[in-house]
Amino acid sequence: QVQLVEPGGGLAQPGGSLRLSCAAPGFTFSSYAMSWARQAPGKGPEWVSGIYSDGSDTYYADSVKGRFTISRDNAKNTLYLQMNSLKPEDTALYYCAKDRVVGPPAYEYDYWGQGTQVTVSS
Q1: How many other CB atoms sit within 10 Å of the CB of residue 59?
Q2: What is the pLDDT, as a whole number, of residue 106?
Q3: Helices (H), the chain
Q4: Tens-digit pLDDT profile for residues 16-58
Q5: With the C-alpha atoms ordered 51, 81, 5, 121, is the resulting torsion angle positive or negative?
Q6: pLDDT for the residue 105
Q7: Backbone φ, ψ for residue 112 (5° rounding)
Q8: What are 63's strand-pairing partners?
């Protein structure tokens, strides 16, 4: 059974860092592109970053480019998001998501994590 489990999240000060993880048992993790998305209070969902199944290429929203780094460890079936130089506007519920089909990122998702809260505040 596919599961996307996101422990962590937390509180950081502006300019600080946090690292999110997403454990992904129950499917052939190494065959699927993965993404992170977020939803801030009162706003719609926003795609944040995506990564190829083998980690060979990554993509970022302009709002996080240069500050966030997506990565994956296919041996551990785990997706990561390193967030640096955090801003108050990064405060949101963050979700990992599995691409629906095998291959390059299609940005169509069939499974989502439960979400983890990130709060950036002084």
Answers
A1: 16
A2: 85
A3: none
A4: 999 999 999 999 999 999 999 999 989 999 999 999 999 999 9
A5: negative
A6: 85
A7: -130, 150
A8: none
Q: How far is CA 17 from CA 53, 64, 103, 117, in A?
A: 25, 13, 31, 14
How confident is the model at residue 38, as a pLDDT?
Answer: 97
Q: What is the enclosing helix (H) or strand (E) of 20?
A: strand 18-23
What is the spatial distance between Cα 80 and Cα 70, in angstroms, rounded to a whole number?
6
Reported as a single tens digit per residue, the pLDDT across 86-119 is 999 999 999 999 999 998 888 899 999 999 999 9
What is the pLDDT, as a whole number, of residue 9?
A: 82
**Dihedral pair phi/psi, residue 8, rounded to 5°:** 85, -140
Rounded distance between C-alpha atoms, residue 117 and residue 104, angstroms: 28
The DSSP bridge partners found for residue 50 are 35, 59
Give 108's contacts (C-beta < 8 A, 6+ positions apart): 99, 100, 101
58 and 52 in contact (C-beta within 8 Å)? yes
Q: Bridge-partner residues for 38, per DSSP?
A: 46, 94
